[in-house]
Structure formats: structure tokens, C-alpha cells
Amino acid sequence: WESAPASKVPEDAHPGLRVAASDGIVRGTPGEDPQDQLIAADHTAFLLCADTNTHVDIDPQGIARCRWNDCGAWQALSIEPLSVPGRVALKAHTGKYVDVVDGSMLARSASPSAWLVMVAGLDEWEQLRAGFKVHLKHEASGLWARAEVSSDERRLVVGPDMNGASAFSLQKQTWRVPTLQPAQCPVTIRHLMTHTSGLDYSGQEEKPLTALDALGRLLVKRCERGEVDDLAQWTAEVAKLPLRCQPGSRYQYGVSTDVLGRLVEVLGRAPLDVVLRERVLEPLGMSSTSFATSREAASERLATLYKFTVPGEIPEMLDDPEGNEGSDWVPPRGPAPIFGGGGGVETVRGGLLSSMSDYLRFGHMLLGKGELNGVRILRRSTVELMTEVNHLGLVLGDPSATIGPGDNRGFCLLGGLELASSRPNEDVSRHPGIYGWGGWASTIFRVSPASGIVFVFMTNCIGVEERVEKLLLRRVGEALRDGEGSVADSRPRRWWLAWPITASWLTATAALLAALAAGLVARRVRAGA
Q: What is the pTM assigned to this prediction?
């Protein structure tokens, strides 16, 4: 915020938490500058589906969906006018163009594919504007775009009838530094634990999408240059940045868990890595979990970190222990000076390293209500408070509140919590009461208290988590449905793996910190308090 032009600083700015009154996006509402509403090929645009109230997003495999009401990196599009009037090409953030393949909309084409844009209320148009309500027709096939509203994946597909097509609202990013307003309430510990603090992941993408992203990116770069030394300094700098929304107003995933890392340091009276090691890792025998490792151990066990960036192409290599530059988790490049509680302080560095067996030990401690092999880490009542309550619902005043449209998960203090479904027998992948976290590098753990099952899956590849998680949940549900039943009471505890244990080290972070933070503040955090 301090780096913003002085002319953009609101006259009433004063020390304290400030909230962005706008996100710099024009939506065609009254009061907007008409020139801001014009959409050209070099602008960042978004499509909001009226049927689902969610934005079109393109995943790293190029699959077009409507899942989140969010103008983020995956939702960014370039709408390029073609030589034929009324026709455009849709270019995704991956650099690929949206086309139709086997009845689905996919962004995997290297060349533009023409889409006819029908604007509600207009027979013809010269330039698109934010606020236009449009239908999209694929010119080559003659098929109309629509969202699968009945599907959890909400893919964009095509059909022959315009009457069944989805309407989309055009939106545009202006990059204007937003006006700010005072926070209506302070950020509480419960806000941080439920990602309702107003903090987001501004600045984590190499290419910012908003003015808030640009401000956040300045702090990320300062951390990567070593200008910010520890969590205490970083938290103080984060407090100067505008919040994305008012505290307690909605779920917004972001650096809240990293701020909890500083809270753990204050309450634990020691650096984050020391508190984690003494209170969680050593008592549970998690000897392969740390913020860094030696060159020898990395050579034998540290997995390469990949990221899907362009559909159909080889994933980008983000961290290669065997490469000439070495790993960000191995000296001299690592560890990062700031231990990220959620791994969101720098672009890549800062999160924990762990192994399959270690993460399973952590999961079985939770399944044992805070105890594993006679070692108690958390009180039983603390674990029950953390995992059996939809804390997101408590914050928002709605017991059925979920983390996103079409998602059946609330949020406990250890990640997503599957809520009871009104159609419990229709989807075997849904298990009410199951909870857990999915990590940035597709490091997934889930605990199912009713079934007595813990499973862990790790790929160390960014961009595959959601599809893998749904497949795993479906397979577990099928096994239980087909006769496995509950193992909680009738069978001895077993180690369930979604993938064979290997010697690789893999990234994981936030769940361990959330458990530790909840234990340290358990007396302050109570359901309904």
C-alpha cells in the first residue's frame, strides 16, 4: 500500500485495517465510467454465468468450468475480435484458445476458434462492454455454450438449442487502485482459522490480475529479496495492505494461515519451526517433516516440484533437487527466512516438507481424537471442537454455509468439512463428517471419523488436486458401499494409502499449523463464542 501513488491515497486514510471498497472490476453498473466498460483484446476480462452465479474458469488441463465466484488467475480471459463482425476468440490465461471437443469446451487450441456473441437487447454491436449479457455460439459446430448446473464439476458444454444455453455477463479488470474504507470490526482468531479475515492471496501470481495483486506482489518480492526477515516483520507488513473484504463477511482463502503462524510464535514463545517441532512433530515421531533438509537427504528423498501451466505440454519444473541451481528447501538456497504457516509468503518457498508416513501419523492422531500410540497432542474436546463444527457457519450466521457455490463443504478448523447432504445416496463420494486439507502441490489428507479411515495422496504437482481428490473420495465411497463398511469399531486400526509409500519428500503445511494453533488457543475458541 505504501508504494501506491500518493494521488491514489484516500483523503481519510489513517493507520488501521482498511478494506478495498472495490476490486477494480467494472460490471456495467450505474456510476462506472463508460470508457472503463469498453473491452478490447488487450484487456483482462471475465465471464460470469447467470445460471450458476460463478465465473468461467480454465483449469491447467484446459477444461472450462463454472465453479467459483472469483476473478482470479484461472478466470482471466482475453476476448479477441475477429475479422467477421460479431465473432470473437476466447483466449485463456494458459495462452490457449477455447474450442469445442467432444461436446465440451476446452482451452487447448493453439489457433483462434470463432465464437458468435449474441448480446441481449442488441441486434449488432461494434465493441463489447462490461455488463453486456451474452450467449456464445461455436461457429464451426453451431452449438451453444451452457454450464452443467446439475454436475459438481460444472463443466461448460455445448448444445444445439439457444433456449438451453447459459447467459454470461461480461466483466473487465481496470487495474485501478481501489478506494479504501475502514474495517468494520477487528480480525479475530476465528476469522483467521476460517479464512474469513478478508485476507486473500494477492501477489502470489507472477502476473498480477488486479491493483491489489500488484500491491501484494511488491511484498512477495521484498520477501524473496530478503528484505523482510521473519514472520513478525511480514505480519506487520501484511497489516498495511488492504483487505479484500470486510472481516467476517465471507470465505476468502488466503494468507490467514500464515498469520496464524505468527500467532503460534507469540503464544508458543518461540519461532514457528521450534514450536512445531517440540509440540507436534517430535511427540508424533514425524521425523521427516521440516522446513528444510540436507543436501544428502534431498538427493535421496526430495521430490521434484511440478506445475501444470499449458494443457497438453510437459509440466513446468518449479523446484529440482538434482538441478544445477538446487532446491529452495536445501542450503544454500533454502530454507526460506520466513516460515510460512500456509506456504503463501513467497511464490514457491516457505512451506513444510513431509512424507506419506509422517502425514498419515498426523491424520491418525486426529482420528484418535488427539492421541496416537499413547501420546496425546490435543485434548479430545479440542479435536471435536475443531473437526465436528462448521465454524464457517458460525462466523457467517448460517449453519449450512459452504466454501463456494455448488460445494457441499463447510469449513472446520482443519479444512473443508463435508456437510450432510439432502441427497445422501446419490453420490458415493460424499461422506458427511469427513474433513481435511488439500495442499498447494496436490498433497491431500482426509479423515473420516465415521468410517475410521485416513487417507493421504501426494503428487508434488500443482494443478491436479481437485480431480484426484474427487476420484479418491469416489473410490473410498464405493469400497464402503460394496461391503467394507465402517472400520472404526469392528476392525483394528489400519493404515490406508491412496498411493504406495515412497521415499520422496513432499510439500504439506497448513493442517499441522491449524491443529497447533487451535491447541494453543483452545480456551479462547469455543463454538458460539
A: 0.79
